[in-house]
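Phospholipid-transporting ATPase
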Amino acid sequence: MLRWIRQQLGFDPPHQSDTRTVYIANRFPQHGHYVPQRFADNRIISSKYTIWNFVPKNLFEQFRRIANFYFLIIFLVQLMIDTPTSPVTSGLPLFFVITVTAIKQGYEDWLRHKADNEVNGAPVFVVRSGSLVQTRSKNIRVGDIVRVAKDETFPVDLVLLSSDRIEGTCHITTTSLDGETNLKTHYSVPETLVSRSVSRLESLHAVVECQQPDADLYRFVGRITITQQGEEIVRPLGPENLLLRGARLKNTKEIFGVAVYTGMESKMALNYKCKSQKRSAVEKSMNTFLLIYLGILLFEAVLSTILKYAWQAENKWDEPFYNQKTEQERNSSQILKFISDFLAFLVLYNFIIPISLYVTVEMQKFLGSFFIGWDLDLYHEESNQMAQVNTSDLNEELGQVEYVFTDKTGTLTENEMLFRECSINGVKYQEINGKLVPEGMTDDSLDGSSPRLSCEELLFLKAVSLCHTVQISYEQPGDGPGDPFSHANGFSSQMEYYASSPDEKALVEATKRMGVTFMGSHGETMEIKTLGKSEKYKLLHILEFDANRRRMSVILQTPSGEKMLFTKGAESAVLPFTTGGEIDKTRVHVDEFALKGLRTLVVACRHFSAEEYVEVDRLLHEACTALQQREERLAEVFSFIEKDLELLGATAVEDKLQEKVQETIEALRLAGIKVWVLTGDKHETAVSVSLSCGHFHRTMNILELVQQKSDNECAEQLRQLARRIKEDHVIQHGLVVDGASLSLALRGHEKLFMEVCKNCSAVLCCRMAPLQKAKVVRLLKTSPEKPITLAIGDGANDVSMIQEAHVGIGIMGKEGRQAVRNSDYAIARFKFLSKLLLVHGHFYYIRIATLVQYFFYKNVCFITPQFLYQFVCLFSQQTLYDSVYLTLYNICFTSLPILIYSLFEQLVHPHVLQSKPALYRDISRNSLLSFKTFLYWTLLGFCHAFVFFFGSYILMGEDTSLMGNGQMFGNWTFGTLVFTVMVITVTLKLALETHFWTWMNHFVTWGSIAFYFIFSLFYGGIIWPFLHTQDMYFVFVQLLSSGSAWFAIVIIITTCLFPDIIKKVFYRHLQPTSTQKSQMYSNRVVIGDDFIALQPLTRAKNQLGKISLLRPTTRASAAWTPCAATRRGRTGAPGWAGWWSK
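Predicted structure tokens:
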């Protein structure tokens, strides 16, 4: 326990050296001076709190929020000094907010604790003392031999020792780690693969030396030293030998592995990344307004304090006959009295800062986020996937997007690869009915049914079918994965290919149709069938693909004993290293394929002499066993091997566009949103796809910043592009940038590069690395204009871009769920982006913008009469309202109408918003929360407050009798009249702002006013025994019994709201905005089910509950939705609100 505490405090790090030594089965050396290394245990901790620190830690985090801390100070001031209002008025709302938030966060952390306990307590099997022992996952130690069975998840990071397969391999999926769903093959070293039993493992003497824990999932450097018969054998270990925690074992009965990284030192735990807290522009504006109102509060408090002392300069007001001072009060410090009075006024006016604003905003965001998941227009029937919200804090940000950064493959395209064409020995071919046909010929011109392949064609197809990492699954009637070569034994089996990329799978399937079939690998043997004849190749080495080389290779021994290298990769990564073959013709063909939007790969080979291969094998072994700088040494060896290549040809596969991509991009462009495509594809392919999807127009002037070699060359090219844009300012421009040129541009010419980009209608970045995508997003995000950015992608390589942008959207595609898990929102197809932004984003923004400003408006109306009242009562700090009214104003009397408004309001029909994307421009750049709009609402609040106060004051001036018996009203009646007028006016003001009425709006609007009257009658009409004083007894009843009071209420409300009505009518008819014009148009829209934005929950609930959802074709004319209700005075009662009430 003491050691764990020291580790947590940083005084006792668990490991000191750069490498760790792991003794398999924890067989440590017997000599006495050996000191074992100390490693972390295998517990996973994702929770934030413990039972001991929850209260202090949670309170500390909550009071870091400026509004909570402010109200805590006010509450403490009320406790310490004599203030005009009860501490309950500040303490109760604060306690409510703190308690609700603490319960929510505590529940979420309890779920994390529960998940941690399930993981840490999971049963596992380890080899100890010569037997297989069951224990809990948290008890695994570094050096333990762990057994994992089929379909189980690896509990620690393991180095594979053996499997039930003869060749010592196993298949795994890493979907939970990197989002890739394909099967990956991992290998054990030859000396340990025979240890398939517990007894053999118990007799194994081996030591693993490896690097210390590293978050990189694809990097592992180590070596294993096996002692056999007194001889030490050293074998290299790499990522292909490491089984990561969180991955799952597939198509393998069981494996044994030694634990090397445990608990929070496993690669999965090191990749836990707390997503940075994204804050919306509305939240930033809200905090700014809060500071302004804090300034108003301090000004009012200081002014009232100064005026109080100025008034009391006269003796008759300083110490009137009815309020004589005590001796202690006369002798007290003037400075302390001034501070005390200032704090008392601060408490009196503190309600101008609305603490309930935060609670209402959080409720609005949380409840409003469900509408995205309920929207059937965002449901994808084929994959049975609906839109999901991972964070509700950014709903309104969807209405403020100015730049969209999108991936290409899997986002704009389907990520379904189809083989289309190829080039072999300078001749173009295409596939027709499973046959390889030269360009210009047809299937009819070929005689015979079986394809006849030339030597060049055959070698090309063999290279494609052997140079890959494709795995095969044979599904047989019995249990188990089956023998890869069971087809040779006469068993009937279904063969299915699994590949790390769709390209490889498409190519291997294509060669199978053309007569060269990959039959699988067995240990070091790869088998293919060439026109029905079996051939077996010995796999000597695999030169794995990496992003720097952009190619992969295999070294094989042919059936004749010859050593050969097959290489495939991007044309820019292979062609420069070729010395033979039809290089020029192939390059032309590759460019032609790219212009058609096809993805290209170039294939080449190399023949090794016996001497050359011996040298190659030695260099590879030395580089693979190096513990230091292994990657650099391997890169050098790979470059030495992959040269002097003979070009065989090139392949071209098609990745078809998703449905309605062109219409979506055009809608975004009309909405004023600039679209940037960031892809790793080659220049020509990317440009072709951009043209086909409408990202680039045919009439657009395409500018290029590609193949720049130096800083000076890049800067000069950027200056030329800037001049061309200025000269041709009438024409739309598109910019193409490649990864290398982008690196140069970002190095020292960011300002010039940004100037060029901002003057282009569309930008395409090709040959991009994942980190470069994030850098581009950050560059735009931090530019002086600070535009709101959105990134959308489907793969693990898009995660950094998604997390960097203001709003990240994951596509539920074929590349796993990594992007979805790290995104803020997830949708099934790119086409859904238009409705997500143009409809949902529009609605969320106008709702929360009105909510924030209305809250400040109604609190100005609330507290300004209190400030004005001090001029009447000689700044005696007498409160105008009763303490109960002060407490319940924001909690009960005025909270529900604005909450319902912020959930359901629609300025324009959703169909109109989608058909007129330009309406999105009306709300861009946070226009509804501009300082001008904020000033309007604030001044409106002050004006209404002045009317409330002085209207009531004039009516109830001196010597005015309002009762039938001649009795006059007192100060509590006056305050209640002002409060009554205020509650009705602020509620009706919101009703004037409401464009979309449902029965719920009617219920909470008129219900809030009715509740105020009913509550006041009960509160003032009964003597409550638990109240010490009851100043409001019978006050409200007396007020309502006066006809003059009713007349005053009507006159004051009309005086406040009539100018608003006149202003709205005037602007709507004389200076209508495009949104107001669309409102008139939307009244004429025939509302059908096709145009519904948010379908009723009664139907959505039933439909979404089905495994396979079929979209209804019946029309929902009477069903309630925020867009299906008519706008001619009637509301649809049936609907999700009706379902809710049931």
